[in-house]
């Protein structure tokens, strides 16, 4: 009995959502597609931090490799050079 009147009244939130939806439909499909592509590209792009971290890791690995062989080869003494004192 009183239900018909209650169903015709819309909440302000629902009206606001409907207005926002209408604004999105006013945009053309190419504009929406371009906006989506820009957002996706920005999300998946490699940043400066990631590139810097990768370069730092490679540099640290090369430095450790070089230090390992430098210390290993510098401690080996050639016995022929020191044994000729007689």
Automatic annotation (TrEMBL):
It comes from the Eukaryota. The chain crosses the membrane at residues 51-71. The keyword Transmembrane applies. It is a single-pass membrane protein. The keyword Magnesium does not apply. It is found in: Endoplasmic reticulum membrane. Its main location: endoplasmic reticulum. Keywords: Endoplasmic reticulum, Membrane, Transmembrane, Transmembrane helix. GO terms for cellular component: endoplasmic reticulum membrane. Belongs to the TRIQK family. This is Triple QxxK/R motif-containing protein. The lineage of its organism: Eukaryota, Metazoa, Chordata, Craniata, Vertebrata. The gene is TRIQK.
């Amino acid at each position: 009995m009183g239900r018909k009147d209650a169903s015709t009244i819309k909440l302000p939130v629902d009206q606001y959502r409907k207005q926002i939806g209408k604004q999105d439909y006013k945009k053309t499909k190419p504009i929406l597609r371009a906006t989506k592509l820009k957002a996706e590209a920005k999300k998946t792009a490699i940043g400066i931090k990631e590139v810097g971290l990768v370069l730092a890791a490679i540099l640290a690995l090369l430095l450790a490799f070089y230090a390992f062989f430098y210390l290993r080869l510098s401690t080996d003494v050639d016995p022929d050079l020191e044994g000729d004192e007689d």
